[in-house]
């Protein structure tokens, strides 16, 4: 395949999934800088090995490359710093500078929804990585079980059980948090 044709095919099949790649990296690394580093590394690897990709749906293949890059970044970071990553090190970045943010019609409902989203994010960040990964792939990236298994490089039954366990752990964490707050929201 000629370089120009290869580049055009890569841009058409892989680049549309840049946001999904960054979203997955952000959830796996729990750090903006590490997520950016992992996505950059993943796209370099993906381009380098794009000749080995066959098919028309590059999303599961790319997310698998991103997953591996994330774990590589985390491993190297762990070796360099020899510290454990803390879940509270990552906060909500908020809207990008210059972004148009619609004014909520019902400020109270908007505040409640924002608090509920943050509670789910916080509980999701606290899940063990293999369960967090499964929940994020299914619920946020709408991956099928087959795609999840391919991305996580596990049998489909393992992907399904990790998702079920992740959902159960997330539900328990949410119930515990809501019980502690006593608000009933």
Could you explain how this protein is built, in words?
With 185 residues, the chain is mainly α. The chain contains eight helices and no strands. Helix 2 crosses helix 3, helix 4 runs parallel beside helix 7 and helix 5 packs across helix 8. The longest helix has 26 residues. It is globular.
Relative helix content: 55-70%
Q: Would you list the SSEs in sequence order as H and E?
A: HHHHHHHH
SS content category = mainly alpha
Let me know the largest β-sheet: none
* Stretches with pLDDT under 50, minimum 5 residues: 81-92
Shape: globular
Distance between the termini: 56 Å
Please, what is the average pLDDT?
82
Number of continuous helical runs: 8
Count of distinct strands: 0
Radius of gyration: 18 Å
% residues in beta strands = under 5%
């Amino acid at each position: 395949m000629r370089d120009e044709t290869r580049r055009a095919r890569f841009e058409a099949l892989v680049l549309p999934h840049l946001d999904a790649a960054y979203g997955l990296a952000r959830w796996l690394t729990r750090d903006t800088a590490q997520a950016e580093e992992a996505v950059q590394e993943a796209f370099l690897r993906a381009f380098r090995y794009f000749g080995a990709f066959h098919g028309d749906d590059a999303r599961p293949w790319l997310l698998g490359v991103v997953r591996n890059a994330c774990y590589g970044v985390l491993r190297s970071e762990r070796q360099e710093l020899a510290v454990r990553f803390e879940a509270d090190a990552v906060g909500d970045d908020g809207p990008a500078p210059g972004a148009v943010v619609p004014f909520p019609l019902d400020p109270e409902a908007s505040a409640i929804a924002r608090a509920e989203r943050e509670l789910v994010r916080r509980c999701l960040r606290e899940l063990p990585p293999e369960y967090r990964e499964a929940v994020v792939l299914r619920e946020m990236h709408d991956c099928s079980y087959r795609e999840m298994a391919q991305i996580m490089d596990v049998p489909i039954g393992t992907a399904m059980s990790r998702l079920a366990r992740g959902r159960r752990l997330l539900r328990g964490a949410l119930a515990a948090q809501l019980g502690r707050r006593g608000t009933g929201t």
